[in-house]
Amino acid sequence: MTESIPHTSPKTYPCPRCGTKTAWQDNKYKPFCSSQCKLIDLGAWANEDYTLPAETTPFSDEL
């Protein structure tokens, strides 16, 4: 008796830059869909387009 292996489609995810559905397996630009999206995202970081929220705390002169 032979067992058939269920055919599963490759896992896909949206590119964080453009939203295009992309297969995860064998994608050398993970998590992006292409080198273009990867470079655009790198440029956004270099231009400081992304920021992290931070609380402002007064500096203390106490030592």
Topology overview:
Elements: E1 12-14, E2 21-23, H1 35-46
Antiparallel strand pairs: 1-2
GO molecular function, one term: zinc ion binding
Cofactor: Zn(2+)
Subunit structure: Interacts with GyrB.
Task: Describe this protein with a few key phrases.
about 60 residues, alpha+beta, two-stranded antiparallel ribbon, 2 strands, about 20% helix, about 10% strand, metal-binding
The count of helical stretches stands at 1
Radius of gyration: 21 Å
Strand content: 5-15%
Major sheet: arrangement of strands: 1-2
Q: Secondary-structure element sequence?
A: EEH
Largest sheet: 2 strands, antiparallel
Number of strands: 2
Fraction of helical residues: 10-25%
- Spans where pLDDT lies below 50 across 5 or more residues: none
Return the average pLDDT rounded to an integer.
Answer: 87
Structural class from helices and strands? Answer: alpha+beta
If you had to describe this structure to a student in words, what would you say it looks like?
Its cofactor is Zn(2+). The protein has one helix at residues 35-46; strands spanning 12-14, 21-23. With 63 residues, the chain is α+β, with helices and mostly antiparallel strands. It has a domain at 12-46. Strand 1 and strand 2 (21-23) form a beta hairpin.
